[in-house]
Amino acid sequence: MKIRRWTALALALLLTLALCACGGAAEDAEPQYRTAEELHQAMENGENLLLLDVQPQDQYDQHHIAGVTATFAFPCDTPETQAILKGYVKELKQFDGDVILICPMGKMGSGNAFDYFVSQGVDPAKLYILEGGQTGWPYEYEGTGPVEE
Length: 149
What we know:
This protein is an alpha/beta fold. It contains six helices and five strands. It has a five-stranded parallel beta sheet with strand order 1-5-4-2-3. The termini are far apart.
């Protein structure tokens, strides 16, 4: 009787460890980055890209890359802003290309969006953050002028 209990306990422990190892892999994913130069080149080469801009609307209106999808979800860490991001989860899961997350500086907003999308099951291998964010974009842009620093 004791052997059965120990065997059952050992199997339960192994199963728990296996499930934890599988579940934590994506959540522990580190974001990948694309420099402005790399993104600009990929755009010119016609790569399949989805540019998801999470800047606040006032900054987006001043300075954004042509062709982005504006979400106005900055800072992407509140229930309200994550509700906005939730509307893109299905599309990102189905998108066959790289997704570039763009925020003002390429840190907090994009990082929070990355974490949220990964937690919702989006493959982290397809998610990239624009290094330096919108303020680091030296190429042509749409808007009324550069973001004030």
